[in-house]
Amino acid sequence: MTLFLPPLAQDDFRFPPVDEALSHPDGLLAIGGDLSPARLMSAYRSGIFPWFGEDDPLLWWSPSERAVIQPSDFHASRSLRKAAKKSAYTITLNHAFKTVIATCAAIRGPEQTWITDEMQAAYCQLHTQGDAHSVEVWQNDLLVGGLYGVAVGQVFCGESMFSKATNASKFALWQFSQYFAQLGGRYIDCQMMTPHLASLGAKPWTRDAFITALQAHRDRPIIQGCQPQQIADWRPQ
C-alpha cells in the first residue's frame, strides 16, 4: 500500500492539521522539513513531535491516543516512597542537559534509539534558547538518572528518560511533577502509553482532548530560561 504524506516546505514552519494524521501507522502526519528550533516549537505547540530512525527521513507524528500525567495525579507507590527515604539522591533541573540527552540515546544503543546525533544537536539548541529542559538524579557526584523534554507554556512534553540506578528515572519524574505543579504546570505529555507510565499515573487521552488542553495552556510560560537549580535533596532517614 502506498502512503501519501505531505512534504514540509523548508521555509514554512506550519504543519498539516493533526486530524489528517494517518491511522496506519497511527499518528504519522508529515515528512521532511528540518529540526530547526522554530520548526520544533511549531510542532510542539501543535501537538506534534518528530520520531525517526538514523536512516529514515524526518517523520512527524500526532498519535490518536496520548499518555498524559496531571502532576497532582503522579502515583508514587508505597515502595517508591520507602525507597526515597533510604536514598541519597539530589534532584536538579538543567544542570546537565547535554549529558542527559546523550545518555538517553546511548543507553538504548544505536539500533533502538531515535535520538540521533542530529536530534541531540537540535534539542541542545532548544535548551540554549530556554525551551528544552533536563532533570538530573545525582548520587553524590554521579549522574544515575534523568529525563528531558520541551516546555510549552503550562504543558511539559516529555521526550525520554534513563536510569542507571534503581528507581532513578521514577524519582526524576516524581520530583519534577511536584516542582512543575508548584509553578502552575497543568500536564506532562508522555506521548505513548506504556504499562510503566500507567503505573506512575499516566492516563490515555484522545488526540482531540490533548490538543484542546494544549491550546488552552500553551501561551503562559512558567519555566523561565534554563537556570540550573536543585529541586530535591534526599538523605537516608
TrEMBL record:
Membrane-spanning intervals of the chain: none
Pfam family, one: Leu_Phe_trans
UniProt subcellular location: Cytoplasm
EC supergroup of this enzyme: transferase
Catalytic reactions on record: N-terminal L-lysyl-[protein] + L-leucyl-tRNA(Leu) = N-terminal L-leucyl-L-lysyl-[protein] + tRNA(Leu) + H(+); L-phenylalanyl-tRNA(Phe) + an N-terminal L-alpha-aminoacyl-[protein] = an N-terminal L-phenylalanyl-L-alpha-aminoacyl-[protein] + tRNA(Phe); N-terminal L-arginyl-[protein] + L-leucyl-tRNA(Leu) = N-terminal L-leucyl-L-arginyl-[protein] + tRNA(Leu) + H(+)
Similarity remark: Belongs to the L/F-transferase family.
Protein name: Leucyl/phenylalanyl-tRNA--protein transferase
Source taxonomy: Bacteria, Pseudomonadati, Pseudomonadota, Gammaproteobacteria, Vibrionales
Gene designation per UniProt: aat
